Amino acid sequence: MSISVLSIPTVAAKLGRTAAAGSFLSLVSIFRGDITRLSVDAIVNAADNALLGGGGVDGAIHRAAGPRLLAECRTLNGCATGAAKITKGYDLPATYVIHTVGPVGEHPELLRSAYRSSLDVAKKNGVRTIAFPCISTGVFGYPAEAACRVVLGAVEEWLRENGGAIERVVFCMFNDQSERIYSEQLANF
Ligand code: ADP
Fold first, then answer.
1. Would you say the pTM of this structure is higher than 0.95?
2. Fewer Cβ close by (within 10 Å): the C or N end of the chain?
């Protein structure tokens, strides 16, 4: 069963904060669960350079989207670290998948670039609602707390620079540790 982005409260609503319309906390949500269930315009895939599927969130997205996703990915000629490419979502509830490649290990500029490139591709394709997994924090080994600081800074800055382009950014948490880290860092924002 798919989950509508509108049913996920913004961080401001969750914290009971009055946040001005268009402010960062009014544009972002935390979702705990499987990103492949989200009915958003685009989900972001933490892919590798080949863009031919893999483990973790990449494997889950390919399984849920079906074989047509891999067929389209084969036409893309891979993706550089920090860049992003878009495909259709096929059997997913999401319309598009934006494939990005985060760094292996702690490289803040490349992680920042993966999020910013994904948002740039989203904007170019008229995406209004987008969900991100915690890119690079699984097999790629970026420490979760440090990654979260980079991510929130990068997304806040991008939304400020691109006022109104995106309606909602969902941070998708797949384990207790990331959920705690994002909740803490967003509450202090
Ligand atoms: P990377 O290679 O970029 O580290 P991984 O897929 O190994 O990518 O992990 C990235 C993050 O995605 C991790 O925090 C992991 O817990 C999370 N994750 C794994 N499966 C899913 C899923 N189905 N939905 C959302 N997040 C997921």
1. yes
2. N
